[in-house]
Amino acid sequence: MSERPNIVLIHWHDLGTWLGTYGVPHVSSPSVDRIAAEGVRFDRAFSTAPLCSPARAALMTGRYPHAVGMLGLQHHGWEYRPDVETLPMHLRRLGYHSVNVGMQHEARDPARLGYDEVIEARDPATGWQRADTVVDHALAWLRAPERRREPFLAVVGFFEVHRPYPADLYPPDDPVWVPPFLPDNAHTRQDLAAFQGAIRVADRAVGRLVEALRQEALLDRTWIVFTTDHGMAFPRAKSTLYDPGIRVSLVVRPPDGTSFRRGQTDRLVSHVDVVPTLLDLASPGAARQLSVDGRSHAAWLRGEEDAGRSEVFAEKTYHDSYDPIRAIRTSRWKYIRNAEPGPLLRLPLDIEESPTRAGMGDDHVRPRPEVELYDLAADPWERRNLAGQPDVADVERELAAALDQWQRATGDPLLDGPVPAPA
Questions:
Q1: How far is Cα 89 from Cα 97, in angstroms, rounded to an integer?
Q2: Domain 6-301 shares a fold with domain 311-416
Q3: Residue 389: what pLDDT?
Q4: How far apart are CA 296 and CA 55, in angstroms?
Q5: Are 348 and 238 in contact (CB under 8 A)?
Q6: Alpha-carbon distance 6 to 300, whole Å?
Q7: Would you say residue 307 has pLDDT above 90?
Q8: Which of 53, 77, 116, 217 has the most C-beta neighbours closer than 10 Å?
Q9: CA 170 to CA 197: how far, in whole Å?
């Protein structure tokens, strides 16, 4: 493309990879599935954190949560450090006009985030930034004549599919598939049906947004990126560093009529890679001017071959309470270090009050190990902890050293001891 492309970044809450395009049966997600079919679906994409504000901070800065000061939820007092720059700030230097429509959870004052425009787009009945309301505002913005005059970044954030899932807003969607890490009972099935009802509603809103881009003849000059902050809000997913907590949907649709890659890929990708990749897609080589933790995949999208990532990292420090955990994941192995004693799962309040929790018993309150090691090839649901076993001692030692090196290189404050909460 000779002109700089537009970028539309759509992000949901708490979705993980619970979509038809990712192979989950019985889910109604035709709009996102179509974006995937027309673009690239990343099957091994990972958040840097299993909770909202830290995850979104990495997505929007290209740096790890602890490196930008976002070690917990924004409404609990965590904020970006003063020197932190975001995607809209970087793109402004390239001549982009930016808008945030709907959900953000990184700053009390959205002006801190660097957008030229901020549209709250709250549903008057609930106060939530619901998909339909957000898309109504996004469509009005996209249809303005100014959209033809300069390249734009539109970040479109939905409250969905965060809990709760009231049936009057999200009619339950049966049948459901119960993944092996959840108890298969009536409680869980009821909960998953409600979750899928929210997905159906949010997916329809995505379809409206993409159709408007088509009607406005913008698809030949616009990248569409779809993702979510972290895993689904169910036990052993959200708020954990197991794959169901940090594996995310990431679908990238190139502009129509271009020769960028399409299809599916197993290459490892981290949310910290999104900022440098988008900058390089906007202006080749732009990411080299940045000091970020992520790496650009733009050359790969253009058809070039590279070695790709060999590992991704994830962290949790605070959620509803202090719970410091760090992890490294490779194509085959997951190594988790629990820095403080506690229960095997420390459930956040929204999951603690869920139907699934009501039907799962209390096995999750037994003490957690200090270290966890999983062979993802043999044990993809991370049920058999191999830490301490002699036959994988070399693997454990190598992953521990790599995690140590990452913490040192990125200035992880956990290396200095317990991390204090904001004053």
A1: 10
A2: no
A3: 98
A4: 18
A5: yes
A6: 19
A7: no
A8: 53
A9: 5
Rounded to whole angstroms, what are the CA distances from 377 to 185, 331, 334, 369, 374? 27, 8, 10, 22, 9
pLDDT digits (tens, 9 = 90+) for 130-172: 999 999 999 999 999 888 889 999 999 999 999 999 999 999 9
Q: How far apart are CA 343 and CA 340, in angstroms?
A: 10
Rounded to an integer, the average pLDDT of 248-269 is 98
Give Cα 300 to chain centroid, integer Å: 21
User: Within 283-392, where are the H helices?
Assistant: 298-301, 349-352, 355-358
Per-residue pLDDT at 179 exceeds 80:
yes
Rounded distance between C-alpha atoms, residue 351 and residue 234, angstroms: 6
Q: Roughly what angle, to the nearest 10 degrees, separates helices 186-215 and 131-142?
A: 10
- pLDDT tens for each residue of 4-55: 999 999 999 999 999 999 999 999 999 999 999 999 999 999 999 999 999 9
Buried-state track 225-237, b at ≥16 Cβ within 10 A, e below 16:
bbbbbbbbbbbbb
CATH superfamily of this structure's domain 6-301 = Alkaline Phosphatase, subunit A (3.40.720.10)
Helix (H) or strand (E) holding 193, with range, is helix 186-215
131 φ, ψ to 5°? -55, -50
At 154, phi and psi to the nearest 5?
Answer: -115, 115
Fold that domain 311-416 belongs to in CATH: Arylsulfatase, C-terminal domain (3.30.1120)
Q: Measure the CA–CA gap between 300 and 224, rounded to whole angstroms.
A: 17
Q: How many angstroms separate the most distant Cα atoms in the chain?
A: 66
pLDDT at 1: 46
Q: Which residue has tokens 């993980």?
A: 16
- Among 227, 231, 251, 233, which residue's Cα sits nearest to residue 242? 231
Q: Residue 99: CA atoms inside 13 Å, Cβ hemisphere, count?
A: 24
- Single pTM value for the model: 0.97
Average pLDDT score over residue span 358-369:
95
Hey, where are the domains in the chain? 6-301, 311-416
Residue 404 burial class via C-beta count within 10 angstroms: exposed 0-12, middle 13-18, buried 19 and up: middle
Compute the Cα dihedral for 236, 351, 338, 69 and give only its sign.
positive
For Cα atoms 297, 301, 302, give the angle at the middle one, nearest 5 degrees: 120
The rounded distance, in Å, linking the Cα atoms of 335 and 375 is: 9
The answer to whether 175 and 188 have CB atoms below 8 angstroms apart is no
- Average pLDDT over all residues of the chain: 97
